[in-house]
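Task card 7
Instruction: Convert sequence to structure tokens.
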Amino acid sequence: MIQVKAAPRPGPKAPAAWLVASGRLVVGPVSTSQLLRGVLYEKIPAGAYVAQPGWSDWRPLDEIREIRALEGAAGPARSMIDDARDFGEACLFALDVAARTTRADAAVLYRDREPYVGFMASVTRGLPAELVLGACLSRRDPSMIYAQRGRTLVGAPRASIAHQVVAGRLGGDRVRGVLMAPVVWDGRLLATLELGRHDREFRASDVGIVSEIAAALVARVDRAFSQRGS
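Output:
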């Protein structure tokens, strides 16, 4: 086992710094956000070990609280969204974490591209990117009625025309449950997150997670406008 050289712990306000060991290769220090991104994009293997300055030994990746949280809560999404370079990257992180934590088989994020093309598919997971990305939704799409009112759509495809339409975009007959959460800032619909599962409907806990992620996107936009005005 590689030994970690002891070092003074960072002050209480210093961001966490991680060393990552995979085989004989050690990289870092990296931030918690960078660590989470590496795991999400499978740049860091599941069998890797991590440590922080001041630790006396290495710990398996799956023992780290922030990594375990990726499988069951939306908390890590907030720091990733905050650290994103722009709103587009924030949307990418948001859909990644939403799909992962709810175990969705397919997911698409549509962004407002008015006044030219409407809502465009900008990020997708579990679907052929070449067929999905760039597709546009009309504001008259049945699901948009829910989204423009700030309402979440969840349930089986048979629940309504809107549910059926979303299921059709996410896999058709294979989809057993759909979830659409709007991202609304200052009364304006900025984006929608659509997720589908092949095995069952989404649970209330899934709705809570995705709603929290949507709220993190809204908070990021709010901060950006506040900073411009200050």
